[in-house]
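cache lookup: miss for this entity combination. No prior model stored, computing from scratch. Input as submitted by user K.M.:
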Amino acid sequence: MKKNYRNPIGVKKYTGLLLIMPFIIGFIVFTAYPFISSFLLGLTDYNGIRQMNFIGAENYTRMLTDSGFHNAALVTLKYTVILVPLKLLFSLLTALIMNLEIRGIGIYRTIFYIPSILGSNLAIVIMWQFLFTSEGLANQLLEAVGLAPVGWYGDSAASMGIIILLRLWEFGSTMIIFLNALRDIPKEYYEAAKVDGCGRIRGFFAITLPLLKNVIFLNLVLQIIAAMQEFNAPYMITAGGPLKSTYTLGMLIYDEMFKYHNVGYANGLSWVMFMMIAVIVGIMSKLTGRFREEA
Amino acid sequence: MKKTCIYILLTIGGIIMIYPLLWLVGASFKSNDEIFTSWWFIPESLDFSVYKRAWQTVTDYSMGHYFFNTFAIIIPKTFFAVVSSVLTAYGFARFDFPLKKLFYMLFMGSMFMPAIVTIMPMYLMWSRLGALDTYIPLTIPALFAVEGSFVFMLIQFFKGIPKEYDEAARIDGCNSIQILVHILMPCIQPVIVSISVFTFLWTMNDFLTPLIMISSIEKYPLSLILRLSADSTGNGYEQCKILAMSVIGLIPSITVFALAQKKFISGITAGGLSG
């Protein structure tokens, strides 16, 4: 049977296809090709100069015994597991406050949003590095309230803390996504619940949270992908130190590729990172229910 | 009473959010001594000559040169991103065509593709094409609607515009492109502003792509020259100079955000996208 395409009269069935041509070409050249190419390179010993040899899963078996990789994977997972829940919780709580209709809230919204749009600008990263030097602003403030200064760059937990704090400070964009979703919830729901004698806190758990399920999942996935790939901040602020305690997978892949020119191994690593992200997102999606797709 | 509590909470939060930026501006006028002894952001004296020195950078070129480079990337990229995203979103939102479901799935999937997987083969591809150390790898991909979130935002917006508009225009003899340009484009103006602003900000923030693709100092965008300066300034060095360079480096982003804020915020609120 011939399929009917629901188009206005006079529109050919290929018009739409023609319009999305930029995407189709872009998908092939900038997504599908590098994705497959990366997988194939991961099965070789290519180093940019020598003839490329197919070595099967050798890069992957090497990872099993590569303590540098184990460390980087652990650092990255630890970073993601600490940062993402904190950031989501913080964003959601702030969004709930920002959703209140009180005077002047617009100014606060802008102020909370600004750090996230400046985001990973190098200028911000440099500033952050300064804030946590031994006599920097962070320690000055700690001393001002009578606490002992921290040797931020000498301590592995504190170094990780610097980077987590930077990314937490940039929670504004996540907050805005939550805020938009909160605004879409009809007020009548809460009014009806109130008539039924449902309090604010119960209203949050019974109405708000279930309706936010999809957007929570979306934010979760976006934040996990971003956190797993973290590169700029540890590269510039801590240089992965001390003792590789902030040396993320992103940094390891960058070094293998551009410092040591182990193209094959670096691509194998990037595929492992991809699989890690896919598995984590898969588990999350099982836990939070199916992610709604709008076609 | 409850309201007062909220205001106090918000104000404390707001100060925490904004204070590092104020500190950065203040510290750019301070001596090394003052930076590391006083937490208060207002400097003891205002000496603008540091900005003159910062403008000279640590290379043979001035900040003006690097601003020019950055805009040579941003302007074509923004234009490309707007045109390609609008066409793609228009196709998905308003037309039915063979394999539409498949392409839409691929499109949704591509939004979640981690950049780290694709960047190395891209580097090798540009290298083979002899395009390394040019702005081609930084700008040309934007021609092909690579920023899925822009397309997604536009599709949502197109869906909000009644199809009757299109039909009326079609009866009056408009073709598909004329409908897009004359009828739909005016309606989606806020999204186009958002896309432009996001492209601007993200390009200003992008560090990894130019770090990999651009190697000669004279072609560096702002982010790379900031890194170079930060790396080449040791401990004894005048810290305020690199801080002043950072302030200069933030000015374009802050200006664009301030100028576009009204339209931009309405665009992201309606389209449901940010960051």
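stored under new cache key. Residues 56-271 of chain B form a domain with the MetI-like fold fold (CATH 1.10.3720.10).
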